[in-house]
Amino acid sequence: MIVSVIPKLPFVNKADTIIFYVNQLEFELKSDYGDYLIMEKDGVEVHFFSFPSLIPEKSDFMVYVRIDTNIESLFEQYKSKHPALKWILDLETKPWGQKEFSLSDPSGTCLTFGQSV
Q1: What range does the domain containing 20 cover?
Q2: Which pLDDT belongs to residue 83?
Q3: Most exposed residue of 46, 53, 89, 117, measured as fewest CB within 10 angstroms of its CB?
Q4: Element (H, E) at 83
């Protein structure tokens, strides 16, 4: 029986990845194994692996982060606290019944945050 799915995302520069996820998105760094990181936020784990040859502008990595309440507040918090974030899509309601926004991490991974409407 499947009990959870944990995304494994690439990182080009470990320090930039830690700064982005810990300082800007407020994840907690749980483990640092050099070329492998484990972070957690709100009980959800995300793993990161070293991929030094990845070109962030050509990255096809993506993850969808489902939010259960107040996506507007999370969007405004990220926008006001960290205006230098690389925004892909501002908050908008999609035809598939989700309110979403997207941004890019330092390694080019697209992070889409969504909440059912």
Answers
A1: 8-116
A2: 80
A3: 53
A4: none
